[in-house]
Amino acid sequence: MSDRPAGSQWLKEHYELSDYILMHSSYIGSPESIELTSRGCVEQVYTARYAPARDTPLLHLEFSLKYDDINLDFLSAVFEKLPMTDLIAYIESSPSGRYTRRVGYLYEFLTGRQLVIATPITGNYVDLLDSEKYITGNTIKNTRWHINDNLLGSRFFCPVVRKTRTLVELLNQSIPGQIEQLKRSISEATFRRAVNYLYNKETRSSYEIERESPSPDRIEKFISLLTTAGTEPDNRLLEEHRLVQLQNSIVDSRFADSTFRDFQNYIGQSLPHSQQLVHYVCPPPSFVYSLINGLGDTATKTSGIYPEVRAAIIAFGFVFIHPFEDGNGRLHRFLIHDILVHDGAVPQGLIIPVSAHMLSNMREYDSVLEKYSKPLMQRIRYNMNDLGELLVTNEEKVENYFRYPDLTDQCIYLAQTIHATLEHDMPDELQFIQRYDEAKRVLQNIVDMPDKDLNLMITFLHQNNGIFPKRRRERFAKLSDEEIDNMQKKFREVFELNDDDK
Prior knowledge:
alpha+beta; Fic-like fold; three-stranded mixed β-sheet; 9% strand; elongated
């Protein structure tokens, strides 16, 4: 006998919700098994003793809450299909039940509609999310349902983050501990110089991700912005006034916004014959303010949890909302630093150059963005006119995709990026600065040149793997060939370059 769907998978088939992707699908059959699909989803077979007593939507919904991963976007679609009378009867049949109360609370949370329950709700308070399976937020006690609401946000924006084995292992690594280890590896003076260099590198990398070459004054403005990371209280992190100020400080003044957008935007590329290839359709403008307000609720609800998780859900949540015409990507990456410093994972005045790592590994960065955008693009419907203006035609079908994202992959990605930067990128940068200082001293002993000439010589040698480029010879006409040969030799010794590097 073939395996029979159960829980969310049964509901998906029963209500013909084919546009929804389930991270965990359950079946009843034999033997028990669990498989990971090519799309990264789990398919699990349970024996008959786990099966719902009857094939009814509410019993399969209860099964889903017990055994499947919670998917608020999918549940909201199920609740729109469920007859309210059936739901009320189910709750009144067991008003103290843990799962009946969870179902009632989630229905009201996701739909904004209140159920008329004649039977008093009783029972001890229970957590809405299992903290062994999910990252949970600060608890709000709901007296109506005797539920501890430990979700990560409000009904306007509420991400879900699953505690996968990979994420748990990453969260067990100490960011402050790794930073302290780096600081102990070099002198305090060198570390201070390195910090200035890293701020500059992070700025240039963040612009380069957007394929922009900013002017020196815009670079200075962004560096100045980065140095303010972590200075705002939670209740101001995502205020419109603050976000507008941040956006104005990093974009060309001609594209500075005074409010969040009131038009539909999208991310795409131009094709021949005036065609557009659309990669991502941003939330319709009617959703933007409530989504940003909901993101603010998430900032409040998650205060005190893992800084790298909070940085991921706030920064990626922001960029997926895309509230401005320009500058969203750079603000998204600024918010990562903002949260990490604000929450004490990174000390004030220091930066982990995650943008530089993203730039060097663009495939992984693009992939984690696409994990969010691709499922949306399968569900969303839109029209586009000859001017490239886009109109979403099924807003009601995609609204809750924007409101209730699963950001597990984004949290894993950011945690991996932070630790890779700390373990590899930053030590390499610190070593470069130490060698740069050493090379500068050695070359100064060969020829006592002005500082700007010495720095330029090192730049040319570094760019050409320790060999002085002949086309630059006229710039150093005052130096003899022997002096230049000696400089090449000493530079290569300091940077441990061998003949294979030529």
